[in-house]
Specification:
Layout: H1 2-18, H2 25-38, H3 46-74, H4 76-87, H5 92-129, H6 134-150, H7 160-168, H8 173-198, H9 222-242, H10 249-264, H11 303-309, H12 313-330, H13 333-345, H14 348-367, H15 369-383, H16 387-403, H17 413-424, H18 431-460
Helix pairs in contact: 1-2, 1-12, 2-12, 3-5, 3-7, 3-10, 3-12, 4-5, 5-6, 5-17, 6-8, 7-15, 8-18, 9-10, 12-15, 13-14, 13-15, 14-15, 14-16, 14-18, 15-16, 16-18
């Protein structure tokens, strides 16, 4: 049965990465799960167990992406990018630093997919307006893609991988932040240093700020734009209070998404009658242009289209792919990996962090970080490790799963989509070229971040 489980996993992963026409990642994964159930690699009793592991992470991720898509439609991220470009004051190297830091901030708050898939097209368009040469543009877009994952360590909500691990090991939002915010800052700093060194000759010395549009022109829906700041602040507070109130993160993120959807669609309409001063709580008849109509110069956000574009396939993918992975666990694969992790655990926190992190990173780069993180989490749970050793294994799993995918194009689904977005904009990055850049950029950042984790854990303890 072990061979059958491995073959099912390999076939499913191939379909997920290949994505044949008309067959999304969710249906591919569900097909693999159906075969695993039919061959008894997994049993129907495993289904609720797997769903219990992934449901909160999956639904929270979808809600966060919906929030980011609505804010993107309102012009939130383009506004931020234009402000950052002006802060660069015509200095090309400073612009590069600020774009990387903006990408890290977006990744931390809106998850890595948001940073890669939303910010990259905005930056690419801005570089065209600034008349940057192709070599310089490539440096900036690769930096956006790289920092999307390298900057997704600080918060539980920064990456789907983070939520899965936090849920599996029952790590609260605050505890996770205490450990990973400092480690995440080290990761961003190391990433910035490596990116600057690698692209030092490609970054232009200067640029003409007069070619940039005014940031205010990027805002397409002022009501949603302003409300977005409030919703984000409430969400951050909500994430911290969710644990003592025993609320899942998906509930907090889901409420935030629903509120922003209601505002963007101007529902209930009575709250959004049009007036010269913007939306006010007045009867419908008070608005000259009809309740809910956008103010002059504003665009109405198509909330239904955004909902259709939300990553619903990730729900099917999570349950399907993780059932397939659970089949590997049933056949003893995770026990073998647990033995490797235990051997690292016998040699102290530093060796544990480096060993587990590097192994997970390599696995994530070869077989995608989503299945890798569950395999690794199951293996860490099977080690029986306690104290700092256990903490090092858990957080090294997060780091390896977040950073390792940048080594190869197949390491994460976000990277494959990112490459597709660039291709549509006329920027071609071959898989060989990506690997040569990815491995050089990733390995030093991975090593520095894991060392920082080991050092910080000895400070904060368990």
């Amino acid at each position: 049965m072990l061979v059958v489980a491995v073959l099912i996993f390999a076939a499913t992963l191939t379909l997920v990465i290949w994505q044949p026409r008309g067959l999304g990642i969710g249906w591919s994964a569900l097909g693999g799960a159906a075969v695993a159930l039919a061959t008894t690699v997994v049993s129907f009793s495993d289904v609720p167990t797997v769903w219990g592991i992934v449901w909160n992470a999956t639904l929270a991720f979808v809600a966060i992406v919906v929030v980011s898509l609505i804010l993107d439609a309102a012009g939130f991220f383009e506004w931020a990018a234009l402000h950052v470009a002006r802060w660069g004051r015509g200095n090309g190297r400073l612009l590069f630093v600020l774009i990387v830091l903006l990408g890290a901030a977006i990744a931390a708050v809106f998850a890595n997919d948001g940073a890669a898939l939303i910010l990259t097209p905005i930056v690419a368009s801005m570089l065209i307006a600034l008349e940057f040469p192709a070599r310089a543009s490539l440096a900036f877009v690769i930096a956006c893609g790289f920092i999307a994952d390298a900057g997704s360590l600080p918060l539980v909500v920064s990456n789907l991988v983070n939520i899965v691990v936090a849920d599996y090991f029952d790590i609260g939002f605050a505890r996770y932040a205490v450990v990973m915010v400092p480690v995440g800052l080290v990761s961003v700093a190391a990433s910035l240093a490596v990116l600057l060194l690698f692209f030092r000759t490609a970054i232009p010395a200067s640029y003409d700020t007069s070619l940039l549009a005014e940031p205010a022109t990027a805002v397409r829906d002022r009501t949603t734009f302003r409300a977005g700041w409030v919703v984000l602040a409430v969400l951050l507070v909500g994430y911290f209070v969710a644990e003592p109130l025993h609320l899942p993160l998906s509930a907090v993120a889901g409420v935030g998404a629903l509120v922003l959807m209601a505002i963007a669609s101007r529902r209930p309409a009575v709250l959004f009658a049009r007036s010269g001063r913007g939306p006010v709580a007045v009867p419908v008849s008070a608005g000259g242009g009809g309740a809910g109509a956008p103010a002059a110069g504003e665009e109405r956000i198509d909330v239904l289209r955004i909902l259709r574009e939300a990553p619903w396939q990730i729900v099917l993918f999570s349950i399907g792919m993780y059932l397939v992975v659970y089949g590997l666990r049933n056949q003893g694969v995770t026990d073998e990996l647990a033995g490797v992790f235990s051997a690292f655990g016998d040699h102290g926190v530093l060796v544990t962090a480096l060993g587990v992190g590097v192994v997970v990173a390599v696995l994530a780069s070869l077989m995608n970080n989503m299945p890798t993180v569950l395999i690794a989490a199951l293996a860490v749970g099977a080690t029986g490790a306690t104290g700092l050793t256990h903490e090092a294994m858990v957080y090294a799993t997060v780091i390896g799963s977040d950073l390792g995918p940048k080594i190869t194009p197949i390491g994460s689904l976000a990277t494959l989509l990112w490459l597709h977005v660039l291709e549509r904009r006329g920027i071609h990055i071959g898989w060989g070229q990506y690997f040569r850049v990815g491995i050089v950029l990733t390995l030093p950042v991975l090593a520095v971040t894991l060392v920082a984790l080991a050092g910080w854990l000895t400070v904060v303890g368990v």
